[in-house]
Amino acid sequence: MIRYLATRGLSLALSLLVASLVIFLVLNVVPGDPARYMLGMNARPDTVAALRAELGLDQPAAARYLAWLGGMARGDFGTSYTYRTPVAGMILDRVGVSLPLALYALALSTAIAIPLGLFAAARRGRAADTGVMAATQLGIAVPNFWLAMLLVLVFAVRLRWFAAGGFPGWGAGILAGMKALTLPAIALAAPQAAILARVARAALIETLGEDFIRTARAKGLTGGQALTRHALRNAMIPVLTIIGLQFSFLLAGAIIIENVFFLPGLGRLVFQAISQRDLVVVQSVVMLLVCAVILVTFLVDIAYVLVDPRLRRT
């Protein structure tokens, strides 16, 4: 187990290093002047030169890369050119929206998908199974931004149960904050629940064909007991993989949903920074999101060890 975790930890560190290098190269070393791009093509040369000096673009690329890494290690992500405020503070404010939204959507997705997967696997080949698979196929096909607009139309405009957008802040109370995140979380969770339900069903059906399931049935367990007590845990490896990927997507890929609901999250911050040509913010937020994705993958690897005892012996 220690060797397994050490290998995964080394892979995590190398992935972060490679990701930081790629992000830095894409935004700083590719052909083109980031300072001129941020100011526009009609900017005066002295203004461009001043911005280059402010951003450290007049330094060698290697020195800038090392300085950027050192700053991130200290929690210093630089200063936004547009807002003239520390990027770390902007990110911290936006994480307070994006992280709860991702966790809320993931909880909804898992709570819907696992029971559906169990229900469909227990009734494989029957009408109920066919109906669940048809519903999940529809969930995968429907774009989440279209579902988001439909939810706004029904629950905000027509029924007036929820606000059409915006976020009151956690200072208004947990219930008010969760209510504001409910429609966005549903819009994000529905397609992910459909994918996860199909994966869970397939993994459960494959596990139900194993010898230990037949042995459990021979000892007197009912089909439902064998499914929940034995098959579910052994089918969790692919399910955990999808859950980890989904959390990464929900945290880093919610740009459209955050813009539909006017949520001040990381996705909206990246969108605004790109439109305002604030490359300092773009570079920092993208690196933070990549770190989150890689860290979640590492945590999923640890979960594999807890679920599958065979990995503890490697």
TrEMBL record:
It comes from the Bacteria. The keyword Transport applies. Its main location: membrane. The keyword Hydrolase does not apply. The chain crosses the membrane at residues 101-122, 134-157, 169-190, 239-262, 282-307. It is found in: Cell membrane. One of its GO terms (cellular component) is plasma membrane. It is a multi-pass membrane protein. This is ABC transporter permease. It comes from Amaricoccus solimangrovi.
